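Issue: ligand-bound run for zinc ion - logging full I/O for the record.

Environment: standard queue, default settings, no custom constraints.

Inputs:
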Amino acid sequence: MNTGLLDFRTDRDASLKLIDWFDIERVRAARILVIGAGAIGNEVLKNLALLGIGHVFIYDKDTIDMSNLSRSVLFRATDAGALKAAVAARAIRDLNPNVEALWESGDVTLDLGLGVYRTMDVIIGCLDNREARLHVNRACWKLDRPWVDGGIGQLNGQARAYRPGHGACYECSMTENDYRRISVPCGAIASRYASEGKVPTTPTIASIVAAVQVQEALKLLSPDVWEGRMLDGREFVFNGTVGAASFVEMPVREDCPAHDLLPPESIVELAGATASRTTGADIVGAAREALGPDAIVDLNFELAVERRCPGCASVHHLLRPLRKVFREDLECEECGRVGYVLSTHTLGGPADEYEEDFLARPLSELGVPRLDILTARGRGGLEVSFELSGDAGATLGWHAGEDSSVDEEAANART
Ligand SMILES: [Zn+2]
Ligand SMILES: [Zn+2]
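Outputs:
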């Protein structure tokens, strides 16, 4: 780079171009998925925009409350009630028009298709709960993508980088107790009105942790250059109470379930398949063509098919992930008794007991997200993964300077 040719009055990146390790071409081509647009997410996104990261995809499920404004540099009082992801995308495009910002709103554990992860260079987690972190970790391990996690309190915080094949993953550190706290015990379906705990945080610690996360994400864009000097497998711990930072090696757990999630040997991109048009029967047909007549397709969640009433024997179709069925949905409209749920994890498996012909329905009506990747299993351990690649344009249509290709109405309809 000939610094003599830099125009500091007109080139917004002139200063960055002076940094010898800053690979501006790599940064402009980068695709980063940011999950969570809360306190940490705001700071992460601000940094990504200032650095001129080319493509940023923002995923979040919440709307903006006035109480978010004390920790969210991208939000204004006039944004109250709007979707965090949408407002954050608009705000970072405003900060740096060279950044393409796409967004979607939904629950990361159910509504974000695995195909989105597959196109990303790095995933940055700005999450506030173990369940979402565990989900993101498994998705990243399965698709061989690095991710950077952050967690904050009021004065203290941590950042960790995870890179498949290079040290510990998030799940390595999970204890029996952690699993227990995440899993919903069999038969115990949560109430729709269960309250979520609120952890008080500050913008200062969010800013410190987010800055470390973004620096590590930058390094992960050029792992060959930074090999041995990255945070992968280690934890950055900032103790704001005494103003000290330290690094902790994260131990690898030998029997960690995430490590068995090898990247699919082959991902078949079904160019014509979309969640809203392709049916369960279509995808089972593709699986059987590839793997033989016994092949079945794994869903990435437990599908609640129907509710049966033990009193009047009426059947009520549920057709959504079991995690979106609440205690209030179990009561029979006819006789008021509490029904039981029939559910499945596969398409094309034994479905004799179901009254509903759910295979005839489009995948989206079963709760399969756009651009998802579904794995089919046949005899002898043969596996093929299918991507609903027909959704790629609508989900990830990166277009310079244009508004998000994911329109607000479509995203709202999915929440
Ligand atoms: Zn692990
Ligand atoms: Zn009944």
